[in-house]
What we know:
Layout: E1 3-7, H1 18-28, E2 40-48, E3 51-52, E4 57-63, E5 68-75, E6 81-86, E7 98-105, E8 108-111, E9 125-128, E10 132-134, E11 144-153, E12 158-168, E13 173-175, E14 183-186, E15 192-199, E16 206-209, E17 212-215, E18 222-232, E19 237-253, E20 259-261, E21 265-273, E22 276-295, H2 304-327, H3 341-355, H4 361-380
Parallel strand pairs: 2-9, 10-13, 11-19
Antiparallel strand pairs: 1-8, 2-3, 2-6, 4-5, 4-7, 7-8, 11-12, 12-18, 14-17, 15-18, 16-17, 19-22, 20-22, 21-22
Amino acid sequence: MVTEIGYKEETLKSCQYLPYVTLFILSIAPFYPGNLLGQELLRGQVVIGDIPVTDGFVMLHSVSSLRAGQVDSVALDHTGTFEFALEGFGEIQGMGEVYFGSVEYQNVLYFGGPITEREQLETIYSIPVFAAKSVSKEGVSLPIIVRNLLLEKGPETWQVRDVIAIENPGDQTLVPTEGGVVWSYPLPEGFENPEIVRGELPPEDVTFTDGRVLVKAPLPPGERMLVIVYQLPELEMAFPAPGATRTFELFVKEPAPTLEVTSLNALDVVSLEPGSSYRRYSGSNLRDVTLSVTEVPDRKPYPLGRLSFAVGVILSSMIGILGLRMSSNANSRKPPIAKDKRSIILEIAQLDELLESDLEEKKAADARARRTELVALLKDQG
């Protein structure tokens, strides 16, 4: 098991990554028992594949809630093995003593996993290393195993947490050429105040230039995660996702305006933290997509004036049709009497429009008769 930490251009530069591993070990140390007393032996081996590495030094680090640092170092023997005496392993009750080893190989510093239990000392402690491979100055394209976007509407901007897990699918550690990067990735246009807040890469090896995140740290085989936070002034923009993305999920914290999302499918609302709910969108096995997230404006009410006019036209049409139907039975029933001049004029106009259309002869005669009656009624009302 390996935790890659760094690449060095000079012999000791890689030690700059040690604090990040130490912080991680410190964070888990309190959860391990600290009642392991006395001296124990740690036996291990450094290997590249199945081949032992016979040249180099292994450093032993000890971490507890009281101390953290390098406690010993030893040269590898001709079989690639090493041995450390763990003085007072866990002798401080409840302090969770943790040990781990590190080794430098081809200017990259590799770390073994944490040793927290006596049972781990019964097996060989392995530190796998990998051959280094320089990449072009612009870096290489790597598949995205998981990308999670968490959006939250702020007072003036959208807050974005962009979690990206990248994978080196090969069997070599990718290292930058001088002045170059290992990997880069585009972020949405207009992003502001980017910052690396968590992840498995040293923040000083992650920068932002020309709308992209740039990673200069070595990338051994396997997955590495970085977490970027930034702000967007608005969501009328796109999140580019070039290359292969195995899983892409978007989470929008409520309350939020109505959004239109492309490339992903809407799923049920989820709760990612107590008292909060998120709209969830998801997609899998994507390639060269662009996730578009836009606010959908609230629909404006229909103008009152136009609405009144439309209702009037519809009602007048109904009156005209009703009048025609009733006039068809003129031999037995009198046509309806309009109560005011406005209604009479409106119905006459409807009949005129109707008479200009291609009506059957009988319907046209009925319409003309009805119009004559209405005109006479209008004259009677002065």
